[in-house]
């Protein structure tokens, strides 16, 4: 612990000695970050929730052909319309990564060798439908970034083909949805970032009073966010729906770190010149803020570990961990050197008398006023460390809680905390009862597990996709894929098993039909399966390659299972279970291994598992942060005390969610671990000040509680409110999952502040009493983490 304080003191000496060089380092890192940010890609939809899976990769490479569908309504058989379809078909057929295009114009051209001028001739081939489709099918194994240019080209081709005015044309499909969603994610990230910055400016302007350059922390934290963009680009972490939520969170957390640095430096400038103030400030505030930052990173780390099979959550956690580390670093590299240069600039006009007074410690009133922060205007200490008492009793024994600097709010918080600490049994019992009620309420909360409900329901591509599904009976949304591996997959015994599977499956709930290689072979062989493998091979050789590769490719076979339309999440899980059970019950031949796969089959269980494992994620977060605090303090009381209020909040947040009807989403499921990591900062600051005051001669526990809450209560409340402002930007996100998460995080941050000021003081009283009775098991009861005297 002393080593950490010495390290930060050394960092402070180096920054104040070389502020320009420090800023140059920050600028070089910023330049490098732009290079990384240019490499960021985006992943949308179910693919963001589907982890590595060998069978899925096999399916993607062999059978998964993305597509774009063009839906045409109106005068669909007019010769001008069919010619436009033909032009679109021919142009798209030449586009890179397009396997083929299927359209009504193909059949008309095959019949007449050209597109006739007679509508009647066209209708003799295609009928007289009100709606027709053109399907652009991609090569297998394409990634989303590879598919998006095809969608862009389809939009260009649709305009170039010049469809008649009487025809309504909608370009839709998975690639169209992915492209629009990717664009919306990018726009949403920028908008949320701008909103968070704007809200932070408002918060700092009105809440962070009494200091110069009060908007400087937003510059530092924005630099940290840019560093984060660069880091995820170099690390290959893509942007996704969940990842875009990280940046308002980082602004909320990062501003907190910078505000703590800023406030403590301003405080030290009241009694010391810059060359002494910065090392003293960093030695005091650096360790607790550093531990708080690590606690937040550990909370996100718990999410990473517990969701390793789901990329979107892993990317969210990784981006968050990069972000808290880099916004902390930006506070050191950007905020502090600028403050140092500004402080030096101010002092150039003081003259010899002022400089001599500052060198001697700035004891008189003139030197204090020269800093611009007098007793009435100085900021509250946002994180007084155990190292340097900010306000010590004077020679007359003046109570530090009566200082004008703390204000009415500070004194009120101090007296309230003293009253609560004097009645620990009642306070903790009420907190426990509310926590228990919260855990009980948590069992009845609704869930948000359908990935399509994560996106704006009025997104044009989504609306178009729904129209397409309505016209096609569900399209790919109700098709699920089974990959069959093994040898001799064209053997009649294997095809007979497929027929058996179809008979059993169609009788199972929610399964509407099966399309398999057996279906294909029977259709081209008079409804019968040949008796020999040679006969099967002969039938398959007569099937057009485009059709055959849908069923057999690269040594694998493909079965399509049709599900019921508009299945809810629970029904989808039941359908998936039914298919797997039916595959087992159908008794595949030896050496034949059928596996249900595809993003539609893998994503729903993955998302639901994330929601159901939220208690595990929360438990990991508590365990990680406890281990961090125990390693730092080497004192059981000091490792446990900051976590007790956070455990209360984990229960209370369920009551808040129930009151506001906020469903449990996969993102919200990680909030328990985040709560522990983020909220630990407030409890650590209050606890450290408590032990600092308690170590003073003649100070009782209740006196220490009151002084601690008085001196830091208002400051952490202001700090917490600035964090709330940053998080509140999420409530304006167009993505429902992020909007709900925004409301949830805003409420939870408020609850952590309440818990830090209302339940931590009585917790400290109780645990201190236990420590005094058990002694050695709990470390130095006077607080081995406390270092008295000036840094």
TrEMBL record:
Domain SSD, chain residue ranges per copy: 213-341, 615-766
Annotated membrane topology: Multi-pass membrane protein
Keyword vocabulary terms for this entry: Cell membrane, Membrane, Transmembrane, Transmembrane helix
Region (Disordered): 364-408
Subcellular location: Cell membrane
Pfam families hit by this protein: MMPL
Domain of life where this protein originates: Archaea
SUPFAM superfamilies (alphabetical): Multidrug efflux transporter AcrB transmembrane domain
Keyword hit for Nucleotide-binding: no
Gene Ontology CC terms: plasma membrane
Keyword DNA-binding belongs to the record: no
Signal sequence interval, chain numbering: none
Major location category of this protein: membrane
Annotated transmembrane regions: 20-40, 192-208, 215-236, 281-306, 312-339, 420-439, 616-633, 640-659, 671-691, 712-735, 741-767
NCBIfam families: 2A067 (TIGR00921)
Similarity annotation: Belongs to the resistance-nodulation-cell division (RND) (TC 2.A.6) family. MmpL subfamily.
Name of this chain's protein: RND family transporter
Biological source species: Haloplanus litoreus
